[in-house]
Amino acid sequence: MPVYNDLRPKKDFEKTDFLQIFPDIDVETKLRAIKGIIRLKMALGVQIPARKSEENLLIASWNIKEFGHTKQRRPEAYLYIAEIISNFDLVVIQEVKSTLKDLYLLKRLLGNDWEYLVSDITSGKDGNSERSAYVYNTKRVKLSGIAGELVLWDEITEDSEIKQLKRTPYLTGFRAGWKDFAMLSVHLEPDKDKKSVAFRQEEVRLLLAALKRKIKEQWTSRLIIAGDFNFYKSKDGPTVEMFNNAGFREIDSLKNLDTNASGSEVFDRMFVNRGSYFQIVKDAYGEEKGGVFDPFKLVYREGEETLYRDLIIEDYGGNRDIENDPEVLRSQFQTYWKRNQISDHLPIWFELNIDDSVSFLDINSKALEEEKLGLKARDAEISEAESV
């Protein structure tokens, strides 16, 4: 679990020099954060499966808005983000910015059992100074040694106007239990106009073409593609189908679940190779375990704008009468401010079975039975030959 030293009363620090991450956090914020964390813990405990040693791995993907860039994010929000991430084992994060400030704070809050790995930023206007990061619990998952950015080459881009994806996909290999696999983090072209939809489809075509070659020549074929695809329900159906045609399938429990904070689009997704290698844990009804976690039902809740009134006013850069108009305050809180605290995207997750011991033993049992029959047949032949 995360480090909670920042939430101690002042008298505790008079006795012991506890390490603080946010030494200036005030009492009111501490009390509010404690209540929020308790609500998060209770909900996460119900919605997210428990860790089972050497049996399961909890994998998540989250686009955290301008992580390392926005100046509005307050200590309270970092505490909530860390609480959410601590319930998973491996989290891929998109929209990590050029500065690693937020990632460093997250690591300190999560504690010594957690590490992170980041790609370089994609420079230039189109790259938006973004990078991807993998945050993982070292007690649950290890690096396998594979790491690299997916860069396109002339052979597959010669007939395309796109020469590189705007935000470079980032691949990293992991090992947990019986499973050895890689994750590829992607963040595709946003917007829903005709030009953006066509551009996004071409990004996917080139991505899949590159993956086909890389998987065959260098990388593992056991791949999870995760991230913010910016797929719109009404526009990107054919583009989603391209993944299916290329041998990937979307996690069943994530299909058609809205992942943006507005609750209107399925932007964030995870695809895995078809086949039996990725065995998603199923519930009592035979449904794959996975879903979307909505923190705004528990923190920065609707109607709580008055709790954050002074902070919202401090951060507001518009010209509407936010100080005297409750509706303007409410709108700013709901539409912008709280999403700058947490994100405009919600984390998605699934539970992977990493224990193949039963199938391993079953296969060996069948092979040994065949071996046993073979030995019996050989002994019978030998015995018959000796009797002649």
How would you sum up this structure, described in words?
The chain has 388 residues and is of the alpha+beta class. The protein has helices at 10-15, 27-47, 75-85, 101-110, 154-157, 194-217, 237-245, 309-315, 326-341, 357-387; strands at 56-67, 90-97, 114-118, 130-137, 142-149, 170-176, 179-187, 223-228, 248-250, 268-273, 290-292, 348-353. The chain has a 6-stranded mixed sheet with strand order 3-4-2-1-12-11, covered by helices on one side. β1 (56-67), α3 and β2 (90-97) form a beta-alpha-beta unit.
Task: Summarize the entry for a quick read.
The protein has 10 helices and 12 strands.
Features:
388 residues, alpha+beta, 6-stranded mixed sheet, 10 helices, 36% helix, globular
Instruction: Compute the CA-based radius of gyration.
Output: 25 Å
Unreliable runs, pLDDT <50, ≥5 residues?
Answer: none
Shape: globular
Number of strands: 12
SSE arrangement, N to C: HHEHEHEEEHEEHEHEEEHHEH
Largest pleated sheet: 6 strands, mixed
What is the structural class? alpha+beta
Number of helices: 10
Record the strand order, biggest sheet. 3-4-2-1-12-11
How far apart, in Å, are the first and last alpha carbons? 75 Å
Q: β content, as a range? A: 15-25%
User: What is the helical fraction, as a range of percent?
Assistant: 25-40%
Mean pLDDT, nearest integer? Answer: 92
